[in-house]
């Protein structure tokens, strides 16, 4: 069984033919060019899909994109970086252009579906996916289905507040999970600490341009024994732990899958999180708890989008 997975980003449209057993069998990338308008972009997505369909028998299309998506997985509202897309029934627009059924979903939820169908999430009936990238996103899988909430917008894990006196991020208030664990906000926190330690090698490396500091630099330095880098990642891991405690106490889901660029720090981040969880989570919730790393990498969005199609049309 094969489906088309589409990852609509601000820079590129990525699309792939995905087999439910073999994974990606063919893929293409084309520039998004969203500035040319909604209809141009919808036509461009459809043309990209049509080019892939020629040599395959396809059951349907799954489309991952930024923004809030309706519960029926057809309509996106106010997606960032897509001019003119105030409220668009993207599923209908693509279906009309391709003669294939289509469903759409928020890109963070797509990551959870990728893990469910092709990643470490396959082993779990229910789990919460946390994506630590430029921001912090997530998706909730319950009984092997995506949990959407009452209006379709559940799973905004990055906007959960863990310290209302904390730093700002893209959330409407201070101290959210994203303000501590989103890539650019973690880098900002790290820059502040490194600037206070001019004898540290990280200061010598980035003092002239802290904007170039990325979490991967911290991970590399920590793996080389840099105590300050280890401390910065540990503090971030502790905040991840507090966030997870909130999610567990709220949802009673005990399996956590964490992916994204920041998560490449691995146990430098996860072990401090586990220590906080062991210390502060209510005892009955600890049974069966697991925190694991997802390593689907750049293919996760395409695999998740195809998983949406498999769930919807198989």
UniProtKB/TrEMBL annotation:
InterPro entries on file: ATPase_NBD (IPR043129), ROK (IPR000600), ROK_cs (IPR049874)
Keywords, ordered alphabetically: Kinase, Transferase
Pfam families the record matches: ROK (PF00480)
Signal peptide (from-to): none
Domain of life according to the entry: Bacteria
Keyword S-adenosyl-L-methionine appears in the UniProt entry: no
Gene Ontology terms, MF aspect: kinase activity
Keyword Metal-binding: no
Family to which the UniProt record says this protein belongs: Belongs to the ROK (NagC/XylR) family.
Protein name according to UniProt: Glucokinase
């Amino acid at each position: 069984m094969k489906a088309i997975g589409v990852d609509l980003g601000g820079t590129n449209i990525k699309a792939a033919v995905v087999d439910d057993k073999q994974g990606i069998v063919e893929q293409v990338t084309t520039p998004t060019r969203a500035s040319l308008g909604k209809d141009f972009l919808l036509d461009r997505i459809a043309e990209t899909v049509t080019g892939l369909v020629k040599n395959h028998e396809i059951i349907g299309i799954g489309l991952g994109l930024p923004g809030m998506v309706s519960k029926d997985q057809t309509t996106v509202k106010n997606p960032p970086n897509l001019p003119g897309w105030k409220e668009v029934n993207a599923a209908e627009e693509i279906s009309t252009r391709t003669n294939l059924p289509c469903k759409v979903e928020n890109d963070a939820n797509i990551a959870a579906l990728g893990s469910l169908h092709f990643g470490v999430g396959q082993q779990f009936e229910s789990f919460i996916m946390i994506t630590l990238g430029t921001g912090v996103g997530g998706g909730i899988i319950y009984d092997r289905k995506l949990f959407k909430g009452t209006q379709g917008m559940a799973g905004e894990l990055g906007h959960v507040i863990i310290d209302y006196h904390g730093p700002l991020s893209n959330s409407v208030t201070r101290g959210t999970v994203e303000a501590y664990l989103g890539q650019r906000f973690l880098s900002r926190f790290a820059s502040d600490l490194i600037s206070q330690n001019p004898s540290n090698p990280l200061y010598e490396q980035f003092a002239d341009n802290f904007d170039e500091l990325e979490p991967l630099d911290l991970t590399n330095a920590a793996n080389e024994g840099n105590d300050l880098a280890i401390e910065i990642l540990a503090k971030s891991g502790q905040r991840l732990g507090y966030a997870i405690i909130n999610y567990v106490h709220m949802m009673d889901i005990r399996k956590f899958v964490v992916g994204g660029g920041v998560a490449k720090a691995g146990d430098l981040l996860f072990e401090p999180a586990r220590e906080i969880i062991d210390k502060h989570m209510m005892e009955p919730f600890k049974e069966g708890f697991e925190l694991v790393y997802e390593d689907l990498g750049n293919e996760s969005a395409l695999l998740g989008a195809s998983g949406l199609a498999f769930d919807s049309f198989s």
